[in-house]
Amino acid sequence: MPPRPRFTPDLILAAALALTREEGISTVTARSVAARLGCSTAPIFTHFASMEGLHEQLMEAIIAAFVAAASDPVDEDPLLGAGIGWLRFASDEPRLYEALFLTPHPWHAKWGPVRRELAQRMAAHPRYADLPTPARFALVGRASIVLHGLGVELWSGRLPASSPRRLLTELVLPVVEAAIARGWDDDLHSHFNPNPNPHIPRGSP
Fold first, then answer.
1. Would you list the domain boundaries of the chain?
2. What pTM did the predictor assign?
């Protein structure tokens, strides 16, 4: 008798990620993941206490994919390089972008470490070297607001995906330069969050 297949947490998470890529995160249920693996739902709840636990790990996997794209050294300026990766991710991984930025979820606080890591890398570039850490962190936040608007345009097909550098040069870089020149060092995400969405905790980065 052949051995029974072993459904590990990694295999279950990979199946959930594949479903998200192909059909969207709303289709990720215990039954759909089990059907993709060819098993019952029992292995899923053996390794994950709930579907919320699986969805949280799925979100972490999607964030990791986004960070990998945004960390590709395509420009000596780490902020512009991250922007190029951001826009490419929106174009190349539309379902993952949708899950990450266009679907309500309670894990927005996971962005804080991502933003801080980028702000730290920016300290080595002459454009940002004289900025204190809070100002660099705030600058990442301002750039992300503009980048998200561009990302939605690419995700929806309203902008071509062929010229992310031009989009950054014309639309994001002016915001960066204005923030540096005017000393804007307050973090908009922390101070201006009216929390219109009950799924998003107040004060999330």
1. 1-48, 62-191
2. 0.85
Structure tokens at 71: 């960390």
Map tokens 């929106």 to a residue: 90
CATH number of 1-48: 1.10.10
Of the CA atoms within 13 Å of residue 193, those in its CB half-sphere come to: 18
Residues 48, 40: Cα–Cα separation, whole Å: 14
Q: Average pLDDT of each block of 10 consecutive residues along the chain (205 residues)? A: 72 96 95 94 92 95 94 88 94 95 88 90 94 93 94 91 88 92 87 47 35
